[in-house]
C-alpha cells in the first residue's frame, strides 16, 4: 500500500518566532548569547575553510533585500534579510529575516528558522565577542547610542560576555531611551539615561553606535572620542549609511569581519580602498594583533556576515534537538521512487 | 492588554508539498501548466525591467546548492534549489527546491512555497512555451529521451500547449521508461516505448533530452539529428554537464534564456564565448526572429532561469487566494512597537 504521508526526509524542522522566544526563555537569554558567541568564535577560528561571498543584494528606493550564503563544506547556510529604514513609520520592522541550513552532501534542507530575533541575538553576541578581545581591560561602562531594537540585546551581551556593569543610553528620540531603560530594569545592569551622546560617553570604555538612518550621519564627531576606548559601530551597514566622522577612523585601529563586504557597506566606505584593516578572525587565531596599547582606539566596523548567521543557526539546530521547539514542515517532495514525482502527484488525487 | 498572538503581518502563507499536490488536482495539471506558461510568457515579455543575476552557486563534490533571486521592482522572488545527481542512489530526489516572494516596498515575505513539484511544472511549461513558438508547424510527435522526473511533465505540457499527440520514450534504464509509460497511460497521448534514442526520434518534430548524469555526455550525436526539428535540451544545466554533440550546436539556431548563465551551464559551454545565440524573450516581443525555415534545427538550450520561478510563484500566489491551500506560518517577528523586539520576547516569558 502506498503511504501518502510525507516521509521523514520530506520534513524540515521549522523554528517559528514563537518557538524562538520559547527557546530564549528555556535557555535563558544571557546563556543563549554566550552560547551563540561560542559558536561564532568556533567558526571564526576556522574562517579559512568557509565558502565566503559578499551578500547578494537587491536594492530598491525603499530598502534592500539580501541573501547571505556560506558553507563550511559539510553544512550550507543562508539568511534572507531585508533592511527598510522607513518601515518603522508603517508599524513594521526595519529588519526581518529567516534562515536555513542544508546538508552539503545531499542538498536537503535540515533547518528552517525565523531569524529576526536570532539576528538580534547573533549581532549582539558578535559585538560582545569582539569587545571581549579588543576593549580596554576591565571595561565596566558602555555608552549605547541609538536605543532601538538592538540596544537591549547589545547591553545584555556586553554584560554577560565582557562584564559591563553600567550602560549609558542616548537616542535622539527620548521615547526609545525610555523603552530601553524600562526593558533593562531588573536585569543586573546600572542603567543611566542621558540627554546627549556626549553625556552617554562619560566614563565609557566601550561605545556602541546603532542608529538607523540611511544617510551619511555623524553620530560621533572626532572631538567626542578620547583615547583608550573600543568603538562598536553597528549602524553603518550599507552603502551610504555611516555613523562616524572620518577623522575617528584615521585615529583608530580598525577591525572588520570580511573586508570585501565591509569596504562597500561599513564605516570604511568613507576611506580609501586600501586603508589598513585587520580581519577579526585573525586576532582570534593569533595571526594578527588585537589591542596593543591601553591608549588605542579600537574600532569594530561591524556590518554582519553570513558566517555569524551560520553559527547562530548551528546553535539553534543543536538546541532544538532536546527541547522539541520546532514543527516538522512539509517542504520537500519525497516520492518513494525518487524518479517518480509525477506518480506521487497522481496517487495524491482526491 | 498585550496580544501575544502573531499579527497578520507576522504570518507568511506557506504552500506545502501536500498543498501543491492539492492545487494541481484542484486546477487540473494541464490547466495549471497552461496557466504557468501564460505567467512566464507575460514576464518574458517584460524581461528588461527585471533585476537579473546569474544564480549564486555553492559547489561541492556531491553537487550544487543554488540561490536564484530576481525582482520586477514590485515583487522580489528567489528559489533555493539543489542538484545532486547521486542522490537517487540514496532514495533522495536529485533536485529539491523551495521559493519565496516578498514585497519590495517593505521587504516582508508574502509567500513561501515548496518548489520541487513547482519547478517540475515550470520547467515543462517553459519548454512547451518555447516549443509552441519555435517548433515546426503542426508538430505532433515528441521524442522524450531520459524518462526521469521531468518526463511526464514535459510530455503533458507539450500535449496541452503545443498539440503533441505522440511521445516516444527512451531511457538507458528500461524501468524508467516503464514508469513514464505507466504514468502517462490514459492521459490522452499515444505513448511508444523505444529501445534506442534513434528509434525514439523516428518521425519526431520535437526532441527533448533530459538526462541526469553530471559529465560531458553525448545523448545525441550529429548523425542522429535530421533537418526540420526542434531540440528541447533540458539536461545540460550545470558546468561539465552537457548532452549534445558540438556538431549539432553548429548546425542549429540556438535560443537561450539568459546568455550570461547559459554560457556557463548550458550546452553552449562547449562553444566559443561569442557563439551567436538568441534570447528567447526577444522572439516573444518581436525584437528577434524565431524559426525562419521549415528545414532549420532550432535548439532551446534550457538551463532554467530565476524569472521562470518568479512567474510560477506569482501563479501560485494568485491561485491560493481563492482555494485556501496554504498554512499561515509564524515566520516574522512583529512586535506592537517595531523598535521593541526585546520587549516582545520579555512579554512572551512563560
Automatic annotation (TrEMBL), chains A, B:
Database matches in InterPro entries: NAD(P)-bd_dom_sf (IPR036291), ODC_Mu_crystall (IPR003462), ODC_N (IPR023401)
Name of the protein in its database record: Ornithine cyclodeaminase
Gene3D superfamilies: NAD(P)-binding Rossmann-like Domain, ornithine cyclodeaminase, domain 1
NCBIfam families (UniProt xref): PRK07589.1
